[in-house]
Design a protein that fits this description.
Elements (H helix, E strand, L loop, with lengths): L1 H10 L4 H24 L4 E5 H7 L4 H11 L17 E5 L2 H10 L3 H4 L10 H14 L29
Antiparallel strand pairs: 1-2
Helix pairs in contact: 1-4, 2-4, 3-4, 5-7
InterPro entries: SEC_C_motif (IPR004027)
Protein name: SEC-C domain-containing protein
Organism: Peptostreptococcus porci
Length: 164
């Protein structure tokens, strides 16, 4: 039910203004959580969800949103639908995967946090950013002309083989 509550909060808004206010509040809390996690180098986050939400000074729903966002960056993903306020959780963060995923969703306010400096060396962070950029390069395929050799490898001209 908590995951459903989080999804409902994040998807259902009365107006565009209400949606903007919601995301501003959530992103502020999320940034605060990540800032503390990175500063303290907390690779393992464990405890009852409601206690963790209190520890990180947020609501259980917003902490669920944090878990939803980080779930692809932990060693053993959680079954988010089964988590309630009194559920004991334990996650271990894969720092490189987390950094890549932050770059992937263009969350510059998160991958630009100062805490990363003590966790991943600058050259590794630059390498991860470079790897991500490579995934966005579009390679235009060269068009096959009628008299070119057929790409199927038959040895015939394209027009006499697959181009018919």
């Amino acid at each position: 039910m908590l995951f459903e509550a989080w999804r409902s909060m994040s998807e259902n808004h009365q107006s565009e203004e209400a949606e903007v206010k919601f995301w501003e509040a959530f992103l502020k809390d999320e940034t605060t959580i990540y800032d503390e996690v990175l500063r303290e180098k907390t690779q393992i986050i464990a405890g009852k969800l409601s206690d963790l939400a209190s520890q990180y000074k947020t609501t259980p729903e917003f902490f669920m949103g944090f878990l939803d966002g980080i779930n692809e960056s932990i060693e053993m993903p959680l079954e988010l639908e089964k988590i309630e306020k009194d559920t004991q959780i334990s996650i271990k963060i894969d720092w490189e995967k987390l950094y890549f995923n932050m770059v992937n969703v263009e969350a510059h306010w998160l991958y630009g946090l100062k805490g990363w400096e003590d966790i991943l060396p600058e050259d590794l962070r630059k390498k991860i950013q470079k790897e991500f950029k490579k995934t966005k390069i579009v390679v235009k395929e060269e068009k096959i002309k009628r008299n070119d050799p057929c790409p199927c490898g038959s040895g015939k001209k394209y027009k006499k083989c697959c181009g018919k």
